[in-house]
Write a structure and sequence with these properties.
By secondary structure, the protein is of the alpha/beta class. It contains 17 helices and 19 strands. Helices cover 32% and strands 19% of the residues. Helix 3 runs parallel beside helix 5 and helix 10 packs across helix 16. The mean pLDDT is 96.
């Protein structure tokens, strides 16, 4: 079986982001294949752990993907401070005689943004609202490449490595079936406080959950990290502020300092996005009756990548340009406005002087006490009693369940079939057991002994 069909059958999707179906991404020809090992957000440990512990398997996967894409250049982009990981990768590259280079990046946010990586590695900027293949590049993260290597051995995506950090006895790495209740993951890490909330992902772009929501959250193919924080932490409280209040604050308190624009990663690589102008003109929103005027005033907001740098680092007034951009993007879609894209952006001068140092970002976020805390050796394997597996763990169309309640199922067996057309991905059973519930959204399995 060729690589594309193997990856499709195995249900491989982007392991660290929105879950783009990998068989679609790799069904292309490219000039450069880049492995994103930069671990974009602070406090995430997963990709570093995988680089240290699975370097040979990772490089084998890289070799296979690079051959399929027909690239001239194969690169692993990783922060230069990750010396242990770089040493492990270099040793594997040497042992396998692989034509793979290490590209050492600085420690800044968002070093792991794929468009930032492409600009750094290839020296060109991806067009606005484009993807790396538009400039001849393909980017996959470490977990995705390892899943591709498994797929070539006939192993579907059923398990997930993820780190649990923050207010825990010690930072740990878990290996757990897809569909494991998140509450089981944090119990394994031994939370040190009673009144806590979670961020699934990183502190900048992760999903905040709290209270009873925690018990209805399950591990997916894209879950890579869980941060345990006090319930009254700034990052948690920020999510409770309604957009109505955020808009009022933006209208009244923005001082037009331009910091949100000057430190915007997408602005610096040449995209047309100036959050300070969106903030300045927000008071005029109700007065803009025509689509032309609305696009002229707010169209640049469509180029926001939601990285949160403006909201959580740049703004001296504690405002939320990111949330305003998200609101405006939704308004543009409601009006069926799709602003013209700049297909040939040019990186701005002095981009390196506008990088956000990770250590300063961590301090601004109030996370310094957790930053740099070592990860416990090895990993803990979770064996849940039940799993609930979502049929939509990827961008695009949900998979269609092929099993019904009462049926037995074995680990690795197909649970949901990818849609025949459009973006979609297969879903597999992560455990052996009996299906206790099956609907269009998810399948629940009661685990039995294998």
């Amino acid at each position: 079986m060729d690589l594309i069909n193997a990856v499709k059958d195995a249900g491989v999707v982007g392991a660290g982001g929105a879950g783009f179906p990998t068989h679609v991404k790799l069904n292309a020809s490219a000039e450069c294949f880049i492995v994103n090992a930069a671990e974009c957000e602070p406090l995430i440990e997963t990709d570093k752990y995988l680089c240290r512990t699975c370097p040979d398997k990772l490089i084998k996967g890289v070799i296979e993907i690079a051959a399929r894409l027909g690239v001239k250049r194969t690169v692993i982009a990783i922060k230069k401070k990750y010396t242990s990981e770089i040493n492990a990768l270099n040793k594997a590259i040497e042992n396998l005689r692989a034509n793979v280079e290490i590209f050492a990046m600085g420690t800044f946010y968002p070093a792991g943004d794929e468009q930032t990586i492409v600009q750094q590695v290839c020296g060109v900027t991806v067009p606005e609202r484009g993807i790396p293949i538009d400039v001849g590049a393909v980017v996959d993260n470490v977990g995705t490449v390892l899943n591709v290597a498994d797929a070539l051995e006939g192993v579907p995506v059923t398990e997930k490595y993820l780190s649990v950090v923050g207010e825990v006895h010690e930072n740990i790495m878990l290996k757990t079936p897809v569909g494991t209740p998140v509450i089981r993951c944090i119990e394994a890490a031994r939370v040190t406080i009673d009144n806590y909330a979670l961020i699934i992902g990183g502190p900048m772009m992760g999903k905040v959950i709290k209270g009873e929501e925690i018990r209805s959250e399950y591990v997916t193919k894209t879950t890579g990290n869980i941060i345990v924080l006090p319930r009254d932490h700034y990052l948690v409280r920020l999510q409770d502020i309604p957009i109505s209040r955020i808009r009022l604050r933006a209208k009244s308190a923005c001082i037009q300092c331009r910091m949100c624009t000057d430190l915007c990663p997408r602005y610096m690589i040449g995209h047309r996005i100036r959050p300070h102008l969106v903030m300045r003109n927000l008071w005029r929103e109700s007065q803009l009756k025509s689509a032309f005027e609305f696009e002229k005033t707010f169209g640049e907001a469509m180029n926001c990548c939601d990285c949160g740098a403006c909201e959580l680092f740049s703004c001296p007034m504690g405002l939320s340009p990111r949330r305003v951009n998200v609101y405006i993007k939704d308004e543009l879609r409601k009006r069926s406005i799709n602003p013209e894209k700049n297909k040939n952006p040019v990186v701005r001068d002095n981009i390196d002087l506008h990088r956000i140092p990770t250590s300063r970002l961590v301090a601004r976020l109030g996370l310094s006490k957790y930053y740099g805390k070592p990860l416990a050796e090895g990993f803990i394997k979770i064996a849940p009693d039940t799993v609930r597996i979502s049929m939509k763990q990827h961008i695009g169309i949900p998979a269609m369940p092929v099993k019904t309640a009462g049926e037995p199922v074995k680990k690795g067996e197909l649970l949901g079939r990818a849609a025949d057309s459009g973006l979609s991905a297969n879903i597999h059973a992560s455990v052996t057991g009996i299906i206790t519930d099956s609907n269009e959204e998810s399948v629940e399995i009661l685990v039995s002994e294998e």
